[in-house]
Protein 1
Amino acid sequence: MRVAGIFKTFPLGKKGSVRALDAISFDMAQRELVAVVGPSGCGKSTLLRIIAGLETPDAGEVRIGADTPATLTARHRLGVAFQDHGLLPWLTVAGNIGLPYRLAGLPPDPARIAALAGMVGLSKFLEAVPRQLSGGMRQRVSLARSIALDPVLLLLDEPFGALDLVTRRTLNQELQSLWTDLGTTTLLITHSVEEAVQLADRVLVMAARPGRIHAEFRIDLPRPRDRALTNSLPFLNLVQAVSSSLDDASAASGEQTEPGA
Amino acid sequence: MIRQAPRGGAPLRAVGTLLFLAAWEAIGRTGLWGESFPALSTIGGVFVNDASRNLLLRALGRTAESASYGLALGAIAALLLASASSLWPRLRIGLDTLATGIYAIPTITFGPVFILVAGPEATPIVLSALSAYFPIFVALDSGLRFAPAAQRDLAAVLGASRARAFGRVDFPAALPAFVDGLRLAAPGAVLGAVLGEWFGAPRGLGVVIISSLQNVRIPQLWAAALLCVTCSLLAYVLLSALHRQAHRRYAW
C-alpha cells in the first residue's frame, strides 16, 4: 500500500479551518503490520478513514496495489474493525461474522464462519447475540467479521481502545498469532505504545496540528511476542524509545488553525 | 433509550386513578358542573341497557376497524416516503416538504371533500391515515438518518450497495423508531376515524357522538367519548409493549 502526500483540512465555520493531515506519506509492504501512534487529535483516525475511502483527501492519493480505496471497497476486499465494534444487536455471533457476505451479496459460508469464530475463541457462542457477550468478546466478533472476506488490507482503528487493560493485554496475547498467520497487510491505529510494539513490524509516530509523520521505528523483535518477550529489555527499550518520540511529537504539536476568509 | 418508571410507582398510580374517578363520581352526583357532566355510574348505566350497549359496541368495532386500516395505510405511506428519502437522498428535501405539506393541511376542512371523493364509508379511513402517517414518517426518517455511525461506516467499507445497506443494516436499526412512530400515531388514527365519521359515515363512534348530542343523550354521548379514549389508550399500551420488544431486540 502506498499513501502519498495526503493533505486534509476541516472547516471550523467562522473560525476558519484546521489542517488535520499535512503531507502524510508512507508505504506498507505486503503482509506488513504497521501501527500508528500519536497524541489525541493528531489525525490518526482521519488517516484511517481516508485509507478506508470514508473521507476524501484534499490532495494526495492512496493505492492498495493497483486499487484505490473505492475500487477495493467495490471488490469487498477491505476489512475494518473500529473501537465501536458496530455489531448488529439483532444478529447472532454467526450472523455478525457472516454480515460481510450478506452486504457483499454473497452467500454466507457456514464452515468459514465457524472457523473464524474458532480463530477468535468463540466457537461455543455462535448462536449468542451480542447483548449476551462481554466487551472483549464483542471485539473478537468484530475482528472475526473484519477478516471474513479475506481482505487485501485490514484497518484496525483502536479495536481494543474501549477495553480494560487486562482484557486488552489478554486479547493482544491471544490474537497476535492470528495476524501473523493471516498475513494480511494491516494498519493498526492505537493509543497504546506497548500494543503497537507488541503487534507491529513497524511503528509510525504522528505529531498533531497538523497531523504528520514524526518518526518511524522498525520492530525487529522475534515472534511470537509473548509475556516473556514483552518483559524483556529489548522490548522495554523499544517501548521507551517510541514513548520518548511520542512525547517529542506532543511537544512539537502546534496550533494550526487557519483564519476564515 | 427507554426510561423505566421508578419502582413502587404502580400503587401511587392506582391511588391517583381512584381519587380521580371518585372526584368525577362526586361532581356528577352533586351536579356541581351541571347536567352535562354526569356521574361515572350514570355513564356506566348506559352499558346496562342492551340496546345502548349493542349500539356502542358495534360503533366501537367500526371505529376501531377504520382506525386500524387508517394506521396501517399511514404506516405504509410513511414507510414508502421515509425509505425513498433514505435510498435516494436527492429526493429528501422534496419528500420532506411533501410529507410536511400534506400534514399541514387541516383535515377538518377537507372532510366534506373526502366524503364526495372517497365516499362516506372510506372517509374515516382516509382521515385516520392522514392523521397517522406523519408521526410515523418523522420517527422512521429520524431512525434511518441517525443510524449508528459505526454500522453505517461498516456497510460503506464492505462495499454494500445502498439497497443492501438499507435492508441489512439501516432499516432493522430503525425498527424501534418505526414502532415508536406507530405508538405515537395510534391515538391520532382513532381521532381521524372519529372525525371522518362526523362527516356522514353511516356507522361508528363519531356517528353516535353526533346523534347523542343532537338528541341530548348526555350519558350516551359521554360513553361514546370515553370509548374513544379507551380505544386510543389500548392501542397506545399495546404498541408500547411492541416498542419495548423492538427496542430490546434491535437496539443497544
Protein 2
Amino acid sequence: MSVVVRTIARILAPVILVFGGYVILHGHLTPGGGFQGGAVAASAVALVLVAFGAPAVKRLKAPFSVLEDLGGVAFVVLGFLGLGFTFFANSLAGMGSLFGTPVPPGPNPGYLNTAGTLPLMNWAVGLKVIGGLGTVLVLFGLVGRDDDR
Amino acid sequence: MIGNTPFVVCMILVALGLWALLSRRNLIKIVIGIKIIENGVNLFLVATGYVQDGIVPIYTYAPPDATMVLPTPQALTLTSIVIGLATTALMLAFAVVIHRHKKTLDGRKVTELSG
Amino acid sequence: MNLAAHAPILAIAVPLLGGFALPLWGKIHPSLRNLWLALVASLTAALTGFVAVQVLTTGVQVYTLGASSPGETLSPGGFPIRIVLTVDALSAFMGAIATLLAVVAFTYAWRYLEEEEGKTLALTLGTLLWAGMLGMAFTGDLFNLFVFFEVTSIAACGLIGYRTWTSRGPEAAFKTMVMYTVGGLFVLLAIALLYGEYGALNLAYLARLIQGTTVDRIALGLLLGGFLMKVGAVPLHMWAPDAYGEAPAQAVILLVANTQTSLYALFRILFTLYGGVADPAIGWLVVGLGMLTLVVAALMAVVQMDLGRLVAFGAVSQIGYMLLGVGVGLTVISSQPAFGLVAIQGGIFHMLNDAVAIGLLFLAVGAVEKATGNRDLGNLGGLGHDLGWTTGFFLVGSLALAGIPPLNGFASKLMIYESSFALSPILAALAILASILLLAVFVRAFQGAFLGPRLASPKPVPTAMLVAMGVLALGVLALGLFPELVVRHLVEPAAKALWEGREAYLRAVLGG
C-alpha cells in the first residue's frame, strides 16, 4: 500500500486497539462489551494487514490462537465461580472486592468497579474474539502465498 | 407508526437471500446469499422487540407508567450475529481451501462428490 | 454446595472447558493433552450417567442458570426469564447416546488419527461437538436450542473439513455448512416468530401458551424444515452421504450422534412444544418423509462403489425408520395412546440401535481405510484373511443394520413394522422391502471387501481401534439379546416423556 495508508495505519492502529480495550472495559456500563470491543480491536489487525501485507502480522498467529483458548477457558471458569449458587450466578457482585462495589440507585457517572463477574466475562469474551478474529484475518491474509501452511 | 414495514422488509430480505442461494453457483455468492437471509432474520428479531414510546430498561428513576423495552431480542440478535460471524468465517475458509485445490469457485466445476 | 443438583450444567460445562483447554495442553506435550482428554471424557461420562440415573429415579430435573438456587425457574412475576435446563427421560436418553458415541470415538481416535495431521484440532472439535450435543439435549429454552444447534453445526463442519490437504473433505464440509446454516436460520426465524407472538422463549412456558394460530403453523413448518435439513431426511439429504463419506471415521460417529440430537430436538418440538395442538396431518407428513428417506436412501446405497458412501446411505436410510416410528406415533397418539406409545418406543429404541450399529460400521470402514489406504469396493477383497476382528465387526454391524434377529436392529424394527402395519400395511411392506434391500447391499459389500482371494497385505489394526469397535459390537449383541430389559428401563420412560410426561415436564418448570 502507499505511504499515506501506511502512515495513517501506524497512527490509527494503536488508537483502534485502545478504543477496543475501552469498549471491553466499559462493557458493563455503556453499549458494547466483549464481542464488540474484540471486533473493534481485531479491526486494527485488519488495518495492519491491509497496509503492510500479510508478513507483518504472520508472527501473531500463534499468540492469537493461545489468546483465543485462554479466553474460552477463562469464560467457563468464571461460570464455575457461580457454583455456590448456580452456574453463571454473579457471585462477585456487591461483595466489595474486585468489581464488587454495590451500585447506588439513580443516575451516576458510571462506576467502573461494579457488576461482579460481568466485566471479567467481558474480558474473557474480548480476548477470545480478538484471538479468534485475529487468527481468521491472519489466515485469510496468508491465503495464496507459498508459506500459507 | 411504522406498522408492519420492518416485517415486510425482513421477508423480502429472506426471499432475496434464498433466491441468491438457489440461483447462484459461485461459492462466495452462496455465502453472500446466506448472509442476506441471516440479516433478514436478525432484523426480524430486533423488530419483534420494538415498543412504541418504550424507554431503556436500565433507568432506575423511571416514571411508574413508563413502558420499558424488553432487552431480550437485542441480546438474541447479538448472539445470532456472533454465530453468523463464526459460520461465515468457516464457510469462506472452506471456499478458500476449495479454490486452492480446484482453482475455481464455480459450484458446478468443483463437484467431485455426487450420487 | 450440592454438586448433585449442578450435574446437568456441569455435563455441558466440563467438555466445553475441556475443549477450550485442549489446544493449550497440546502445545506443551501431546501426552498431556491425551491425559487431559481422558480426564474430561471420563468426568463428563460420569456426569451424564449420573444425570440419567437421577432423572430415571426422581423425575424431571430442572436447572436455572444464574439464579440464586437451581430450582428458581420463575422470576418474581411468575415468568421464566432465565436460561433453564430441563432434563427429562428423553433428554437423558439422548445424552447417553451422545456420550456413548463420543467416548467410543475418542478411544478410536487415540490410534486412528496421526499426530502430524491435526490431531489436536480434531480432538478439540470433537469435545466441543460433544458439549454442543449435550447442550441441545438438556436445554429447556428455544434460543439455547438454536445456540447449541449452531455450536454443533460449526464443530461438525470443522470436523468434516479440517483435513485441508484433501480436496473432498472441504467440499463436503462446505455443502454441509450451507445446509446446516440455512437450517439454523429457519429455526431462528421460527423462534423469532414465536417470540414475537408470545414474548417468551422458555419451551415449557411456550408450550402452555401455544394456540395453533397461523403464525404457529408457519413457525412449525420452519422448525420442521430447519431440523430436517440437519437430520438429513430426503429430500434434504444431499449433504449427508458426502459428510459421512468424507469425514474421518471418529468424526463420522460423532456426526451420527449429532444427527440424532437434531432428531431429538425435532421430537421435542413436535411433542412437547406443539403437543397441545397436535395435528395428525403433521404426523402423516413425518411418516411420508420417513418412508421417502428409507426407500430412496436404500436405493441409492445399491449403486455405491465406495465402501464409505455405501455405509453413509445406510445411515441415512436408518433416519427414515426413526421418523417413521415417531411419525406413526404422532399420527395416532391422541386417538389411541397405547398404540402410539409402541410406535414412539420403536422409533426411539431405533435411535440407540442405529447409533451402535452404524457407528460400528463406520469404525470398521475407517479401520479398513487405515489398513489398506483404500475404500473402493472394486479394489478391495479378501480382507477377511488378515483383518479377522474387523471382518467380524463389519458383519455384525451390517446384519444388525439390516434387522436380522437376534441382533439389535431387529428388536426395534419389529416394533416399527408392527405399529406402521396397524396404520397402513403398505408402510410396513415398503419398510421391510427397504430392509431387505439394505441386507442385499451389505452382503454384497461384505462379500466384495472381506471375502475372496487375498488382494493386498493390509497393515494390522491398532488395539485401541479394535477395543472401540468391540464396545459397540458388544452393545449390538447386548441390545439384541436383552431388548426387553432396555425397553423397560430406558426406552419406555423416554417414549413416555414425549406424550404422557408432557404435563410433568411443564410442571417441573412452571410449577403448579
